[in-house]
Structure formats: structure tokens, C-alpha cells
Amino acid sequence: MQYLILFVLFLVIELLYFKIADRYNIIDKPNSRSSHTSITLRGGGIIFPIALSIAFFMGYVSWEITLAVILVAVVSFIDDIKPLSQLPRFGSHIVAVGLVFYDLNLFVEPLWLVPILFVFLIGWVNAFNFMDGINGITVLYALTAIISFSFLAVHQSQLPLLITMGLSCIVFGIFNVRKKAKTFAGDVGSISMALLLGYFMIKTIIYSGQLGYILFFSVYGIDAVITIFNRIKKKENIFQPHRSHLYQYLANEMGYSHILVSCIYAVLQLLINTVVIYMDSQGNLSLLFAVGILFFLTFIYMLVRQFVVRKMVLGNS
Question: CA-to-CA distance for 273 and 107, rounded, in angstroms?
Fold first, then answer.
């Protein structure tokens, strides 16, 4: 009953936000780099930090994580409405990462570990944010991660938090996982969710001692990293919006359904996560296994990307 009440509450909050967004013209207008063709309400992902705030008052999450997520959410929401410079955005990320590290007691770890984890978390937050581009991809991928984390023993004490955040994803998905989305997550949704998922990932690795759990982010990670390398090779500004991720090629240039492409990414990641959880339960989740899977997935990704790019070139010739 408690979670049913939360679901209804999140639904009401989201509908109220739509009225506010419509009233104050908080919208996404399609442009040459967009994957959508009609005006859509922006910032529906505000339900994620709101859900986390409610979880805090219910005693499900620490003040450090709550403050970290709220901080990046507020700055990101302002940026959604009126674009900010890099300084306040990056500054909020640095403070938020510091709060996450404080919660996880990482400042007592070896000095060399902190900067590595800092680069990883900042990189993940920005990669997750940049990957938001077609209907359903952010929320389905986030829900996949939340479901996967909920099966790990290390997070059993935080199961109520994971369920709460999962419910917020379902509510957002009702309005986003559509052929014609009513709302997009915006930076307020994607960055706040990315930070929370990054927190769970670092906690998983530190507490379990298994670096192999990094595979939970492998599908997004491989697409993001290779796309960045390709853009650098083309001398493009990697901080500018674009349509050169593989999922964007599939949805935009190849004409596949946004929802189909988003489901493929989510299901593929869920299958990988299932294998990782099983391997760990059998005591076989080694670093060698994780590296081997990453190389295999990268190889498959490159083959598919080259095939798609070749078809695009032939189709335009």
C-alpha cells in the first residue's frame, strides 16, 4: 500500500509539473540536432530528485546523497530554463561528487583512488546526460540499472530507496516511453539520475570488491566513449549536442522506432547484468572476465556501427 501511495503521489506531482511547464513555456523545440519533430515539455525528469527528497524524509537515504542530487538537480533545472556557463554546472558536479565520496567514506581510502573515482563519476554523469536523446532511452536504462542493483546483497538495506526511485521511473516512463513523448527528462532528470546511479555503482564495487560490476554500465559506456572518440577524430566540439550515437543513427537515419531502439539497449544491458550477477554468485566474476566481455561488446558494437554507417552512406549516395 505504501508504494501504491507513492506511485499515485508521483503521478500527481508529474501532472502538476506539466501544468507549470506549460504555463511558463518550459519546452524543447526541435532543431537540426534533435531526434524529435514536435514541441515537447522539458524537465519531466524533475520527478527523480523529488522522489529522492521524499525518500529522504522517509528515512531511505542519507542527507549527503540527497543534498548532492538536489544540488545538481537545481543547477540543471536552471540550465534547462536558461542555459548557464560551464562554471556553475561543473562546480555543482564537483561539490556533489565530494558529498557522494563523503557518504561512502572514500576520503580515508588510498590517495590515488580518489581522483580515479572522481574522473569516473564525473565522466559517467556527463556521458549519461549526453546519451539522453530519443524517447525512452534514459528512463528504461535507468530502470534496468535500478532493478539490477536491487538484486545485490550489498544494497538490501537500501531496497526501499531503489523501489521508490523505480516507481518514479515508471511514472516518468508513462509520459516518455511513447511514439510521441509528452515530456523529456531534461538535464534535471538525466544528471540527477546519473549521479544516483553512479553512487550505487561505486558503492557496489567498493563494498563487494568486484570491479566487474562496471559492466552494469557497459552498453551506455561503450556507445558514449566510441562516439566521443569519433567526434574528436572529426574535430567536433564534444560538448555540443549531436546525433552521432549509434542509437541516434538507428532511430533517425535508419528509421527504427525510438521505443524499439531504447528497448534493445535496455534489454541488452539487462542480459549483461544478469550474467554478471550470476557469475558473481558462482564466484567467477574476475577482472579478466570483465575485460573480456568489454572487448567482446566493443567489437560487436564496432561491427554494428560500421554496418549502419555504411548503409547510411549508400542511402545518401
Answer: 29
